[in-house]
Amino acid sequence: MKKNFIYISFFCLLILFLLVSCGTHTERRSGNKKDSAVNKNISLIWNNTKDYTYEQKEQFKIDVENAKKKLSNKIDELRKQASVSSGNAKENYNDGVQRLVEEREFLNKKMSDFNEITNENWDHFKSGVNFAWKDIEKTWISTTENI
Questions:
Q1: From residue 117, how far is each of 68, 111, 112 by CA, in Å?
Q2: For the residues of 59-70, what is the DSSP string, one character each?
Q3: How far is the CA of 54 from the CAs of 9, 51, 58, 76, 142, in angstroms?
Q4: What is the pLDDT of residues 66-109, one digit of tens each?
Q5: Domain extents in the chain
Q6: pTM above 0.85, yes or no
Q7: Are 100 and 143 a contacting pair, CB within 8 Å?
């Protein structure tokens, strides 16, 4: 009888351990899926693979302005996450927000030269904007993956 009690207790502890470890693993995996979805989401803000011609520069400007609005919304989301976080996560969110705001300002400065663009300097201007967006995406990814 005493021997059966020990076996049953051991079996129950084993099952409990397996349930707890499986639940933790599932949470980690679903968190990674969420981060991947978030990271893909930021890439969809700016389609830097689209090759705008000089004749399409007004559409380029409209698309950049729309993407900047989406970026502002993403920054607001990170600020909300920071407000409900603590410790390293809060610090990481706040650092990421600060860098994203700075990078957005750099992009705004770059776009302030839009009216001076000529056909000759169009490709240079466009590549500068695309590099600014790549920096924004890198910051977004490093901020959301390191939580």
A1: 20, 10, 10
A2: HHHHHHHHHHHH
A3: 75, 10, 9, 33, 33
A4: 999 999 999 999 999 999 999 999 999 999 999 999 999 999 99
A5: 44-145
A6: no
A7: yes
